[in-house]
């Protein structure tokens, strides 16, 4: 926990367990499935353990924003975990704190018992990360980029060469392996970053919107690859807006809104008898029948 950060003030949304939170103005209590409140310390037996993870942007300014608010969550080893939430819910911010890219205002994150901010080097060796909108080394070719990622992790050249070709094939990028990354399409960039995240065979993959802009054939290949990885004991965390995809692909899901955890558990626990999409809309609310208001948009 950082020394200089001020405590985050509880708001009227806060409930002691975080389980059922009255929403300001609605007078309504929304309940989602939440596991029993975890202990104060991160769980060393979980693949990922978050305790009170909080990020406040612009502390002390008029624009101060609590992007992630006391997020506590345990991700078991071998889980394929979906993190879902509306635009601006705090997914990228939470994942950035978990992966050592953004320092938390408060709280802790551990990966297989390693404190991400206490021992960032060891934690980063244990995971592969697909960040959202990260700059790439644009002048490297796709093949060079994956090779660089492997060498950076201290792998020997022969293994890196072999795995790079395997990954290029899996991502359907073999023919474009020699092309500079700056000339890749959005989907190709996503795939080459995914390959770079996987080359050192980490025990945990943290992937922010991995399927965004990826074509359906490549997406199916990547999905299969990730499912095999999870079946063999690897842990995957993916953020996504696509509920149908999360329902089909993931075995666990966490729903966040306004930086808070609304529900978490197995997909079956969270969705109950409804689809995940229905559960999600029910939990986060906010459906606006906006079409009714935009009368000027209707063609005559
Ligand atoms: N660097 C920043 N400075 C100030 N506010 C920020 C910053 N980064 C994010 N935010 C704010 O924090 C909140 C959470 O943003 P975040 O990017 O984590 O959401 P998200 O769930 O990943 O959204 P999306 O699904 O649209 O990618 C938003 O209100 C956003 O405007």
Overview of this structure, please?
This protein is an alpha/beta fold. The protein has a domain at 135-201. It contains 10 helices and 12 strands. The chain has helices spanning 91-98, 120-125, 142-152, 157-170, 186-198, 216-231, 243-249, 267-271, 276-284, 290-293, and strands at 20-22, 29-31, 48-57, 65-75, 80-85, 106-111, 114-115, 127-130, 204-208, 235-240, 252-257, 260-266. The strands form 3 sheets. The chain has a 6-stranded mixed beta sheet with strand order 8-9-10-5-11-12, with helices on both faces. Strands 4-3-6-7 form a 4-stranded antiparallel beta sheet. A two-stranded antiparallel ribbon has the order 1-2. Strand 1 (20-22) and strand 2 (29-31) form a beta hairpin. It is globular and about 55 Å long. The termini are far apart. Residues 1-30 have low confidence and may be disordered. It binds adenosine-5'-triphosphate (ATP). Adenosine-5'-triphosphate binds at residues 57-58, 65, 67, 85, 87-93.
**First-to-last CA distance:** 59 Å
What profile does the largest beta sheet have? 6 strands, mixed
Rg on CA atoms, Å: 20 Å
Q: Could you tell me which ligands this complex binds, including any ions or cofactors?
A: adenosine-5'-triphosphate
User: Into which percent range does the helicity of residues fall?
Assistant: 25-40%
Tally of strands? 12
Strands ordered across the widest β-sheet = 8-9-10-5-11-12
List keywords for this structure.
single chain; alpha/beta; four-stranded antiparallel sheet; 10 helices; globular; binds adenosine-5'-triphosphate
């Amino acid at each position: 926990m950082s020394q200089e950060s001020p405590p985050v003030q509880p708001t009227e949304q806060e409930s002691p367990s975080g389980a059922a939170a009255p929403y300001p103005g609605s007078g309504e209590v929304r309940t989602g499935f939440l596991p029993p409140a975890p202990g104060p310390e991160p769980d060393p037996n979980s693949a990922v353990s978050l305790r009170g993870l909080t990020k406040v942007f612009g502390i002390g300014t008029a624009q101060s924003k609590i992007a992630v608010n006391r997020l506590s969550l345990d991700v078991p080893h071998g889980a394929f975990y979906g993190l879902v939430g509306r635009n601006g819910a705090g997914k990228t911010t939470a994942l950035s704190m978990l992966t050592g890219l953004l320092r938390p205002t408060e709280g802790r994150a551990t990966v297989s018992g390693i404190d991400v901010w206490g021992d960032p080097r060891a934690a980063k060796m244990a995971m592969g990360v697909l960040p959202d909108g990260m700059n790439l080394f644009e002048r490297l070719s796709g093949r060079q980029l994956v090779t660089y990622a492997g060498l950076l992790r201290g792998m020997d050249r022969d293994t890196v060469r072999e795995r790079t070709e395997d990954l290029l094939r899996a991502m359907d990028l073999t023919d474009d392996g020699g092309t500079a990354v700056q000339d890749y399409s959005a989907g190709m960039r996503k795939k080459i970053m995914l390959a770079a995240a996987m080359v050192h065979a980490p025990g945990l993959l943290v992937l922010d919107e991995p399927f965004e802009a990826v074509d359906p054939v490549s997406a199916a290949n990547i999905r299969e690859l990730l499912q095999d990885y999870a079946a063999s004991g690897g842990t995957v965390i993916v953020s996504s807006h696509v509920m149908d995809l999360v329902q089909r692909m993931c075995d666990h899901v966490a729903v966040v809104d306004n930086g808070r955890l609304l529900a978490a558990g197995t997909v079956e626990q969270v969705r109950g008898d409804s689809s995940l999409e229905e559960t999600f809309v029910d939990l986060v609310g906010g459906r606006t029948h906006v079409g009714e208001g935009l009368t000027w948009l209707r063609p005559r």
